[in-house]
Amino acid sequence: MRDFDLNLVRAFVLLYETRSVTATAESMHVTQPTVSYSLQKLRRRFSDELFRRTGGGLVPTTTAQALYPPLHHALAEIESTLSGAHSFDPATACARFTLALSDLGEVTLLPRLMAALAARAPGVTLTVRPLDVDSAVDQLGRGEIDAFVASPLISSQRVTRIPLFSEGYVGMVARDHPRLRGAAMSVAELTAERHITVFGPTGHHGPRRALEARGLLDRVVLEVTRFSTLPYLVQDSELVAMVPRLVADAFASGHRVRLLELPFDIEPAQVSVYARHSHARTPAQQWLTGFMHETLARPGAAPAQP
After folding, report:
1. Which keywords appear in this protein's UniProt record, sorted alphabetically (predicted)?
2. Of 115, 136, 141, 195, whose CA is between 20 and 30 Å from 222?
């Protein structure tokens, strides 16, 4: 077993979890040929193909499926011990993390993160990049960002999803809207009004889909790319917007807008932190994901992975 080192175990576990040589190489910060060479050594060691290549990625063999649980457990134990020896102390550390957030995240989540950082990790600073759900996983793999928060459910095996909360939607109109004066609007009222929707790279497509399902897209007179523009456009018009409840509360406290209950349910957005697999995170990144979950998650959310 002299040629069977920890990096071989790490390569196997990441290949199993990501089903991708490319993603494994990114997570281990090595080249793809290095991962392919590790896979060859693993195949020789276990006298098995371990992973078969298909159009959808690598598929583990029966042998690989049997090996994964004990090797995953062993790797987790070893890395837990090693990270303890090189732990991240937020109270004394000086570190900078880069996050990708939507404009909603910047309005509703970032203030809470900054307040908690000031109290618990005064030497930690953040850089925020705009979220593009189509490229965020690649950015994470390349090390350009440390984590991102998104509402679309991303099923990529290259990242770990850490649920934070689910969020519904409400209607938002000008405070002095001439027709919509109650606490809720009816289907007939919603149908009669003109609408503004958000269509961009950050997710939250539920309101537009709800209008489309009811044949109301012809009532949309304005599309914008960011939710943060909505209160400025709504407060001086008769337009109706459908907005995630958390940010709607923030808008209502600082703008001349009013919130109304919708006459139908829109599928709640599932807001989550996405990060590298735990085996590929540094001790600092391990702390970051745990900190974000602890600060932002609502009761009942799944615990962050160690």
Report:
1. DNA-binding, Transcription, Transcription regulation
2. 136
Every domain of the chain with CATH number 1.10.10.10 lies at 6-85
Tell me: pLDDT of 222 over 80: yes
Chain length of the chain: 306
What is the CATH T-level fold of the domain 95-166+269-296, as seen in this structure? D-Maltodextrin-Binding Protein; domain 2 (3.40.190)
Q: Would you call 189 exposed, middle or buried from its count of C-beta atoms within 10 A (0-12, 13-18, 19+)?
A: middle
What pLDDT digit, counting tens, does each position of 54-107 carry? 887 899 999 999 998 899 888 877 776 665 545 789 999 999 999 999 999 999
Question: How far apart are the C-alpha atoms of 211 and 215, rounded to whole Å?
Answer: 6
Range(s) within the chain of domains with CATH label 3.40.190.10: 95-166+269-296, 169-260
Read off the pLDDT of residues 109-123 as tens digits, 9 standing for 90 and up: 999 999 999 999 999
Q: Which CATH number applies to 169-260: 3.30.565.10, 3.30.980.10, 3.10.560.10, 3.40.190.10?
A: 3.40.190.10
Q: 195: Cβ–Cβ under 8 A, 6 or more apart, which residues?
A: 211, 216, 219, 220, 221, 222, 239, 240, 241, 242
8, 38 Cβ separation under 8 angstroms: yes
* Strand-pair partners of 134: none
pTM score of the predicted model: 0.76
